[in-house]
Amino acid sequence: MTKKIDMPALSVTRRRALQGAGIVGMAAAIASLPFTRSARADDVTLRWWSPQSAPAQLAAYKFQIAAFEAANPGIKVAFEPTSDETYPAQMAAAYASGQVPDIVTHIPSFSVASYYAKGLVEPFDDVIKAIGPEKYFDGANKTYEAGDGHFTGTGIGNTAADNLWVRKDLMAKAGIDKIPETWEELRTAAKKMQGGGIYGVPLPFAKNSATSFVVTTLIHGAGGQLFTPDLQVAIDSDATANALEFYKSLRELAPPGATSYSWGEMITAFVSGATATGYYAGRVLVNVNKQNPSIADQITCAQYPTISNAVPKSTINDFPSVFIPKGTKNLAAAKQFAAFLFVPEGYIKQLLAAPGHILPVLRTIAENPAYTSDPIITKYPKEVELMTVNAAKGYNMGFESPAHKPNTKSVDIIASDVLSEMVQRVVLNNENTKAVIGDTAKKLEVIMKS
Questions:
Q1: Tens of pLDDT along 326-359?
Q2: Which of 343, 362, 392 is the last residue of a domain?
Q3: Any residues with CB less than 8 A from the CB of 439 and at least 6 apart, and which?
Q4: Binning pLDDT at 50, 70 and 90, where does residue 139 land?
Q5: Does 203 lie in the same domain as 216?
Q6: Same domain for 404 and 384
Q7: Residues in Cβ contact with 317 at an 8 Å cutoff, skipping those fewer than 6 apart
Q8: What is the 3-state secondary structure (H, E, C) of 270-284?
Q9: CATH assignment at residue 36
Q10: CA Rg, the chain, in Å?
């Protein structure tokens, strides 16, 4: 289960909590809704779960919690970290035991949609109304629209999850004059840059969500899809076979330990200088500047290459979300805190805990000087703009394209590891590619019918 993080109280008065541009206005909007009055009636402690808990993020959460508690006497908030790999099991256990957290943030929108379809999520309409629908980027909440007319949650941010990161110095040394745009260009460039203790790619080959994300990127990059727009299994295709064969060809360019890599190892490999390229979201920017500043002026990113220039590039956005689980004993207070997370001062602190990683969903925040003047944002304007634009029109397993119906089984697919197992069978076990894809299609059909 989750572990509570000790977060010492900050000295934040009620007046201080409500000061600052935009804070008073949003506070008034929150206070105008019925749920605030009942939230104040009883002393409660809200449990907040999130898989995002880096030290800088914890500091931002501490500020938000202290400000909220100062503005709302009688309501306390306890932060409890989960992880990207374990949250499905932790949520399942919480629902089974009836001990659900009061608010959950930073898990993918497709997971929220899946939980909502099973009757496990409270409608989020009141919270979006309190935040202010007019403040969002156009279409920001489309992925949260449920068939019953309600919203399942909202985005705590956007993430361009599958950027190709490169080192300009290593490219120049290897005689590479442009960032790879096709798979063949990527493979050739990675081979040229590999050597002297540096590997070409940091891609994972373990049975986990990271590998599932990478193979999804490659299937889309081959012109394929996991499902048709009406959610029929479509993975048994030449595109998937091409994706797996390309993935297999990169094994020799990855570190030996990549067979056990997950998200943490992937980013560390590039940031530390162990690999010449990277596959990750915008956290790379701040991590390089803090942990390996000698290469900070040499990094840049692009959309991940495709099989050929004839296949359009796309971006995975896992749409990090905020939602309220069904079964919370503190629904009114949970709604109040969920809306408070978007008060500008605290929300900007949270975004800038990893600048460029979690990108704002509110247009008003993206234009706010307190956000745009951050040193990382100003140092990498081209990269941040690229990720912001691509993430806004991105997709994920639960929302493969604008034509697709929402896939509420996506969280079950990720939890099953059926996609990463497919990779292991082809890449590590050398099983017949077409046979493995056929088996995988059958497993997906079972999950979709479950």
A1: 999 999 999 999 999 999 999 999 999 999 999 9
A2: 392
A3: 422
A4: confident
A5: yes
A6: no
A7: 158, 159, 160, 161, 390, 391, 392, 394, 395, 396
A8: HHCCCECEEEECCHH
A9: 3.40.190.10
A10: 22
